[in-house]
């Protein structure tokens, strides 16, 4: 079942930029380039639930017939059906987002199951925020993780273009250290744009108020999107997807 963005506020509030409950303050769990399936139980998703979701995605991949592959974490998983259908229904699009995933989890999924059976023309990638929130990693580590995911995508889908999304802003205050870490990360991620296979887009400013704050009408937990937030993202994505599919 696809969950709407607002529902993640109740289930995944702990991912809104805070470290895991079982981590001591300042502790870092290596996630960025450690290729692994889900190994941590969360109140909002058990390990078994993660594996079931992965089995569902594997079965979807085995069917093939996907031109636009969305890949990421809960922000990707949470697309409301109405926005998905109205903006991407014209494409052969498939959602491969799984809540709570960090870059290491995505690397594992790309190397296991049937994802190599797909032949997408375009991959829409948004990943990295959980490396901060659930792993406590620094921007440099998260960048290494995103770089590794992009490299893996290039290997698995050499003919596909990659629409690389900047990590979305978090926290209501624009001067919050976590917001600044995201901005630092995105400056590095922008360098992965090669104008040929990888195309970087920062849609983050579209979710901000004029003063740089985030409205809870768009991000109720300052991480996940409401239906209004998804509409903003979809309106921005659609012309880029159409252009890259030409």
UniProtKB/TrEMBL annotation:
Q: Does the keyword Transmembrane helix apply?
A: no
SGNH hydrolase-type esterase domain residues are 70-232
Keywords in alphabetical order: Signal
Region forming the signal peptide: 1-21
Q: Which top-level group of life is the source organism from?
A: Bacteria
Q: Which SUPFAM superfamilies match?
A: SGNH hydrolase
Xref: Gene3D superfamilies: SGNH hydrolase (3.40.50.1110)
The family this protein is said to belong to = Belongs to the 'GDSL' lipolytic enzyme family. Platelet-activating factor acetylhydrolase IB beta/gamma subunits subfamily.
PANTHER family the record matches: PLATELET-ACTIVATING FACTOR ACETYLHYDROLASE, PLATELET-ACTIVATING FACTOR ACETYLHYDROLASE IB SUBUNIT BETA HOMOLOG
Q: What is this protein called?
A: GDSL-type esterase/lipase family protein
Its lineage opens with: Bacteria, Pseudomonadati, Pseudomonadota, Betaproteobacteria, Burkholderiales
